[in-house]
Amino acid sequence: MAHNSCWRHIPKRFNSQYTSPPISPFSYIHVDALSDNRKEVIAKHLKELGPFPTYSNILNSQHFYQNTVLLDYLKKKPHPISLRQLAGYGNVLTKQKIVSSANFVRIELPIRLAMRIRDLQTLPFGVVNNYHLAQVYESYYHSFDAFRKIPQIHTIEENERFCKTLSTLLDDHLFNLSHLMMGALEVSIAETLPQRELDTFMSSMLRSRISRRVIVEEHLSLSENYQKNPYAKKPPHYLGEIFQNCRAVDHFNQVSEMAKESMSQSFPEIKQMPNLEFEGNLNCSFQFMVPHLHYILYEIIRNSFEATIETHAKKGQVQQSLPPVKVTIVDSKKEVLFRISDQGGGINREKLKLIWSFGKSPELARKSLANFHKISGLPLNSRINPATMPSSEKQNVGHMTSSSSSSSSSSLSSSSAASWGTHKHSTLQRLMDREYEHKLGMGLPLSSVYADYWNGNLQMNSIEGYGCDTALTLSKLGYHTNVVQLDRA
């Protein structure tokens, strides 16, 4: 009796209304994928579940002593910076501005990475030792250790090598978003962290990730522009190449077509998908990061389409027309408001409370994890490991950390430099490209973080039995460029 009583104090995040199926070692993996041979292969990796995985050059018995370097960086504070300050460098580009921007990024990245590494370290052992979160930790610490060793940048040639390193960083960190989301789902299954703490942790990690990537991509964009057209003067409200002028109606239509295409195979009996109907200011346009805008709109539109189809289209019956999804656009001086209204039957109050959380019931979390494994193109098994870095990256980091870097090899060609900030892969795009039936349950919580980061807001109101109104507010960045949102380190 005394033995069992100790379990009473373990916090449970979900009410007893959720019945959790028994947890097995392979509870979210499809049974067909687990032949006897496959189980033997998996068994060989059980030793990796210890505190110091054998594949890691960072997580070892000496890591405690190495951590004193991290603690020194935690004494430093990230430099508050507004979007206007960051983009202001681009009005008229000079050599000194490019070098100053490079050194800002060089100093800022290790400080911001150190803060998030410490957040991971202070999690309960059963959480931070989760495989996916351990991959994020490994990735962050490797980058922190590499970037803190880069010496001061003095010349354009040194900046070119620095840009190569930054570009590699963006590609190497692509898998972190997937690992964070999968780690949150596995934590939900194990119930090792209260839901509120899990949401706070995820929001902090995601906001910091956005901030770092904006800072890096902005510097790559400035360097690319300087290489192509130095000293060119930009318009007064220029924010940088990574921000594009977006006409709202065009982007809604583009995302709508993407959603219809992804759903067409799952609903082949539906000859005509729901259409969008617009009202309000149809000529509204604003500056924004297109990947973020598309992801937010995509998750909202796809949810509205799904609810409309499942509510109004009977199975096996061809429906000639379905109620449209109405989009109301309100264009004010400092922000734009979109109201997306559907007739998809609405959501009950209890479920409405849960859709904004990264924590799920164990049953739903297992289903989402199984779907993650079915998505093609997500680098779920990628790791950053100094021992296995490509020789080109080793050489690149070596150049940046050598004492003779200022006098080393000649600069990159302009055609090479032009590829720094373009054609970058996007985890958000891969998540949008996934097949419709691979539901993850993370779209709205993730969209809410992206909207909030840009001083916006995402809310949903529901009339059960009728439909939902989703209100998305986005601040016009040109009027909020003095807000130090990039300080969300």
Automatic annotation (TrEMBL):
Residues 80-242 form the Branched-chain alpha-ketoacid dehydrogenase kinase/Pyruvate dehydrogenase kinase N-terminal domain. One of its GO terms (biological process) is regulation of glucose metabolic process. Residues 383-401 have a biased composition (Polar residues). Residues 402-419 have a biased composition (Low complexity). Its main location: mitochondrion. GO terms for molecular function: ATP binding; pyruvate dehydrogenase (acetyl-transferring) kinase activity. It holds the Pfam family BCDHK_Adom3. Residues 383-419 are annotated as: Disordered. Its EC number is 2.7.11.-. It is found in: Mitochondrion matrix. GO terms for cellular component: mitochondrial matrix. Keywords: ATP-binding, Kinase, Mitochondrion, Nucleotide-binding, Transferase. Signal peptide: none annotated. Belongs to the PDK/BCKDK protein kinase family. PANTHER family: [PYRUVATE DEHYDROGENASE (ACETYL-TRANSFERRING)] KINASE 2, MITOCHONDRIAL, PYRUVATE DEHYDROGENASE KINASE. This is Protein-serine/threonine kinase. It comes from Candida oxycetoniae.
